[in-house]
Amino acid sequence: MARDRSAMESAELTAVLDALDDADARAIIRGLEEPMTASEISDTCDIPLSTTYRKLDLLTDAALLAEGTQIRADGHHATTYEVAFDEVRIALDEDRDFDVAVGRPEQTPDERLADIWSRVRRET
């Protein structure tokens, strides 16, 4: 699949490779067809919840999953996770160093606003 370089985002090679080398992390990526909470992911992928949290950290640190917020009427909001890429490309650059780029799907204005809100929430 050809992708314009502007749609690709540089990522840390080791973080991406470590995440994609993990069988549970790959199962989570395959199982995330829509945003889900950690508990839902644990149930869907048949992975213990404590392991699920570690794998979610691994995947979000590699920028392969995006965090969102599920607003609940009772005020106890939940963190949701969704796949944040559609392509990972590893190449040799002109200095013969490995370069990894992660292709991201185009975001709607609502998704961009939700992303900004998630970042603000993390920083406060």
TrEMBL record:
Protein name in the entry: Helix-turn-helix domain-containing protein
Gene3D superfamilies the record matches: Winged helix-like DNA-binding domain superfamily/Winged helix DNA-binding domain
Highest taxon in the source lineage: Archaea
InterPro entries per UniProt: WH-like_DNA-bd_sf, WH_DNA-bd_sf
Biological classification of the source: Archaea, Methanobacteriati, Methanobacteriota, Stenosarchaea group, Halobacteria
